[in-house]
Amino acid sequence: MANDAPVLLADEPTGELDSVNAKIVVEYLVKVNKELGKTIMMVTHDPSVARATDRILRIEDE
């Protein structure tokens, strides 16, 4: 974020956090997206984190 990148990549940004702190991180990422216009690509296994996004893409094993 220091370099003002247009895209932020987040690999499990809430993976090791409790639910209270995970919510804080997700709310911050949503704020960065909405207020600063940043595209955020995030990987998560947590459905509650995924629901905070505008678009969900799933990778499924066949």
Could you outline the blueprint of secondary structure elements for this entry?
Layout: E1 7-11, H1 19-36, E2 39-43, H2 47-50
Parallel strand pairs: 1-2
Structure description:
This protein has 62 residues and is an alpha+beta fold. The protein has helices at residues 19-36, 47-50, and strands spanning 7-11, 39-43. It has a two-stranded parallel sheet with strand order 1-2.
Give a concise summary.
The chain is an alpha+beta fold and 62 residues long. The chain is 35% helix and 16% strand. 8% of the residues are buried.
Which labels suit this protein?
about 60 residues, two-stranded parallel ribbon
Sheet with the most strands: spatial strand order: 1-2
Count of DSSP helices?
A: 2
**What is the residue-averaged pLDDT?**
94
| Global outline | globular
Spell out the helices and strands N to C: EHEH
- C-alpha termini separation: 37 Å
Class by SSE composition = alpha+beta
Number of strands: 2
Which residues form runs of ≥5 with pLDDT under 50? none
Rg over CA atoms: 12 Å
Helix content: 25-40%
**Major sheet attributes:** 2 strands, parallel
Strand content: 15-25%
